[in-house]
């Protein structure tokens, strides 16, 4: 995360694209730090050369966002996207060419219904079963994470188009009503209570290594977005732990949310 900010923001804007990059430096081809979904509110402190430097209100993450991806803050939201990705149509039919897409946890304002579709305040249409009212959360954050099986790995990503280890945790837990910080070290320091790394594990335990985190789906299996395969995979926890130990990386903690 980029260095801290001081003073009051010059403006408060929101992401207008389906997803916007958040970077540590204003470099078009530089690495991602994180990503912001459509509707995410961003406090802007500086604007220069097409980049806005500021802070995401949702998790406090600081960085640079392309100015072209930001616009006025919407008046409000009534629903949230509950599937990894959904298409947005200009007319209420699946036979139309999609106008765009929206990702899990994207807030939207529903103004009405037309057949199987919800009509958004923007005039676009989304399948009604892909939405839930704000405040209606998933019961099991692990089940949310499991929807990302085989999604490609992307450093700084938090959508099914590309996600990293801590992005998967943050995204899944948000859908279950838990706002957590973005990076693995932040999550390790702030989520849950520590359990014995060699004791019996259970579904939902978070396992941390230096710079990495995974989610236990059962006592023996871990789900994680990994650079090892460049995708989200499930694997035997003991085998994974042994592989990382050979690389000099052992478990630093296990947290139970």
Summarize the structure in words.
The mean pLDDT is about 95. The protein has four helices and 23 strands. The chain is mainly β and about 260 residues long. It folds into three domains: about 10-70, SH3 type barrels, CATH 2.30.30; about 80-135, SH3 Domains (SH3 type barrels, Roll); about 140-255, endopeptidase fold (from Nostoc punctiforme) (Alpha-Beta Complex), CATH 3.90.1720.10. Strand 2 (about 20-25) and strand 3 form a beta hairpin. It has helices at about 140-145, 165-175, 185-190, 235-245, and strands at about 10-15, 20-25, 30-35, 40-50, 50-55, 60-65, 70, 80, 85-90, 100-105, 105-110, 110-115, 115-120, 125, 130-135, 160, 160-165, 195, 205-210, 210-220, 220-225, 230-235, 255. The strands form seven sheets. The protein has a six-stranded antiparallel β-sheet with strand order 18-23-19-20-21-22. Strands 6-5-4-1-7 form a five-stranded antiparallel β-sheet, with no helix packed on it. The protein has a three-stranded antiparallel β-sheet with strand order 11-8-15, with no helix packed on it.
Helix fraction, binned, reads: 10-25%
Summarize model confidence as the mean pLDDT. 96
Cα-atom Rg, whole angstroms? 19 Å
Strands of the largest sheet, in order across it? 18-23-19-20-21-22
User: β content, as a range?
Assistant: 35-45%
Number of individual domains? 3
Number of strands: 23
Order of helices and strands, N to C? Answer: EEEEEEEEEEEEEEEHEEHHEEEEEHE
CATH topology of the largest domain: endopeptidase fold (from Nostoc punctiforme)
Q: What is the name of the CATH superfamily of the largest domain?
A: endopeptidase domain like (from Nostoc punctiforme)
CATH architecture classification name of the largest domain: Alpha-Beta Complex
Helix tally equals 4
Give me the oligomer status.
single chain
The residue ranges in which pLDDT falls below 50 over 5 or more consecutive positions are none
Note the main sheet.
6 strands, antiparallel
Task: Quickly name the level 1 CATH class of the largest domain.
Answer: Alpha Beta
Q: N-to-C terminal Cα separation, in Å?
A: 24 Å
Based on helices, strands and strand pairing, what is the structural class?
A: mainly beta
Structural shape = globular
